[in-house]
Amino acid sequence: MMIDLLVIEIFKGKDSPETRVVKGTNGKPDRTYYDQKAYFSPDGFQRIELTVSHQNLTDCLLPGKYYLAASSFQVVAAYGRGQIELDKFKMKWLPVPPDLKLD
To answer: Which of 19, 59, 85, 92 lies 20 to 30 Å (CA to CA) from residue 33?
Structure first.
């Protein structure tokens, strides 16, 4: 069985994070983020470069393929019913198992 997942890839040699500092406002301290380049291939041919941001350097991803964990989503009440949306503050990337056949 083939599985269709949203998969990103971090390439060896392009896995070093870039440090970004966001100045604090209203007395809040500055925040440091660590941005990594990742690549998404929606059609299997064309690669789209994206940025994956981390709050801690230790959260940066090693080279490999990753998919979003279910805990990266939240249900919100909209128009009287629940809807699912990506929680950009709780995104968790999990390694794709090497034996998993992707679509």
So the answer is: 85
- Amino acid identity for residue 60 in this structure: C
- b/e map 28-59, b = 16+ CB within 10 Å: eeeeeebebbbbeeeeeeeeeeeebebeeeee
In tens digits, the chain (103 residues) has pLDDT values of 566 788 999 999 999 999 999 999 999 999 999 999 999 998 878 999 999 999 999 999 999 999 999 999 998 887 778 889 998 888 999 999 888 777 6
The domain total for the chain is 1
Q: Domain of residue 75: give its range.
A: 7-95
Q: Looking at residue 79, which CATH number applies to its domain?
A: 2.40.50.140
